Structure formats: C-alpha cells, structure tokens
UniProtKB/TrEMBL annotation:
GO molecular function: ATP binding; ATP hydrolysis activity
Keyword annotations: Antibiotic resistance, ATP-binding, Nucleotide-binding, Transport
Predominant subcellular localization, coarse grouping: membrane
Annotated InterPro entries: AAA+_ATPase, ABC_transporter-like_ATP-bd, ABC_transporter_ATP-binding, P-loop_NTPase
Gene Ontology biological process terms from the UniProt entry: response to antibiotic
Residue spans crossing the bilayer: none
Compartmental location: Cell membrane
Any one Pfam family match given in the protein's UniProt record, by short name: ABC_tran
Stretches assigned to the ABC transporter domain: 10-240
One Gene Ontology CC term in the entry: plasma membrane
Membrane topology category: Peripheral membrane protein
Name used for this protein in its record: ABC transporter
Amino acid sequence: MPPEPAVPALRLRGLGKRFGRTVAVDALDLDIPAGSFYGVVGPNGAGKTTTLSMATGLLEPDTGTVHVHGVDVWREPARAAALVGVLPDGLRLFDRLTGPELIAYAGLLRGLRPDVVAARRDDLVAALDLGGAGRTLVTDYSAGMTKKAALACALVHAPRLLVLDEPFEAVDPVSAAAIRGILRSFVAEGGTVVLSSHVMALVEATCDHVAVVAAGRVLAAGTVEEVSAGRGLDQRFVELLGGGAGPVELSWLRPSSG
Ligand SMILES: Nc1ncnc2c1ncn2[C@@H]1O[C@H](COP(=O)(O)OP(=O)(O)OP(=O)(O)O)[C@@H](O)[C@H]1O
C-alpha cells in the first residue's frame, strides 16, 4: 500500500476574500508541509496579510477552507488556536504592560499554569534579550523591541505552527539574528514556520520553501531551489511578475534642471 500522504501543517483551499470591489485573495490554494520554513513573498497589495489573517482565524474568509494539522480553523477554532502562534501585521498589544508582563499575560490567556508561565516568560525574555528594558512599558518600546515581545507572546504556548507577518521589519540585525536562531531551532525540533516578507535575500537565506503571491493568487510554490530555478529568487520574482514597467524618468529631480 502506498504511504499515507503527510498532513500539511497548513492547508488552504479555494480561499477567497473581497473588500468591496477589491479581490484581495482569489481562490488561493496552498499546502505548507509540516516541518518546513516557508516564506510567502509578493508585491505590495498581493494579499499576503489577508491570506495569513484568514489562515490564523483572525479574518473570516468569504470562500474556502483552512486546516492546521488537519483541524478546520473555522469549525474548531479553539483546537486550531492551540496549535498556532501568530505574529500579525500592525498588531495591537496591551502595551501598558512591561514586556515580561505581556508575555505572562499571553501565557495565562492561553490557559497555562502560573508556574509554567513564569518559567517560559523568563526563558523567552533571555532568548529574545528583552531583560534590559527593565520596567519600560511596551508602549515605549522601539518597533523592533515591540516585535520581539509580540513574538514571545506567539511562542509562549509552544505552538506547532508559527505564522509571522513581516517578522523582521524594523528589527535591527542583531535582534534579527536572534529571532532567526529561535525560528531555526523551532523548525529543527519539528515545528513549522510561515513568514511573509518583501526581502527576497532574507527568504532565500532563511526559508527552505517559498510561495510567490500576486493579485491574491499563488504564482509559484515549492522549495526555494524549485521556485528560483537556478536564477536567484529576486530575478525569478521579477520574471514571475512580468518584469514591471520600465524606469520612469523624473526629469525635474535632476539637480541640474533647476
Ligand atoms: N481592511 C481592508 N479594507 C479594504 N481593503 C483592504 C483591506 N485589507 C486589505 N485590503 C486590500 O486588499 C488587497 C490585499 O492587501 P494585503 O494587505 O493582504 O496585501 P499584502 O500582500 O499584505 O501587502 P503589503 O505587502 O503591502 O503589506 C490590497 O488591495 C488592499 O488594499
């Protein structure tokens, strides 16, 4: 008998969302294999945030289904939520707390025991180097620090799947390396990471799989080698998107034109 096909960490089928006349996501199908480090790339307005929001139960799809490790996100939201950690785009946090307080609060909301919460909070503060901020409230954190605190909140219940919208945006290189290290060991231990990014070099260096999304559809998906087809992800991305228009000359911008 052939082996059972593996259940993907995330399965999107016929996913669709409109905002008025704008089709943000258009009958999108995608499988994210369990244990992969998956990048979702695409131009501005491609539908990445909308897709990831629907995949994680934050935004109700107009059409289609989402399964996380075989659990239907929209039929069994509590079971699915226990499996997923999310770093949404433009996240609103309870920012009148310190970072460690926020992490503990996230753990308690997830139903963890207080002693487990305290231990994990301390581990996450150390791993993400959030201890130096002392009693500073999250509202006074830099953008990168806020992102790290939000990532810690997404990790505290030990999810199997992490979905991260632009996790490296506004994060300094040292913090980005720390975050990458944490995500890599999460994947090495059997977890799955899905992240969206505009930065091809980052996806190429970090992810093993990639999907190129444009106009709410998947243009190409597979391992980074398959999708980049020996030409580098940046170049493939431009090719898949049709190269774009030629350069527009801004003659008035020439210093000599005044
Ligand atoms: N709440 C909303 N109301 C109206 N239109 C929306 C809303 N959210 C997204 N859109 C539209 O849906 C389309 C897809 O947006 P989305 O934010 O998902 O793209 P994205 O790939 O994440 O873009 P970016 O890389 O710029 O963040 C865009 O045309 C956007 O203007």
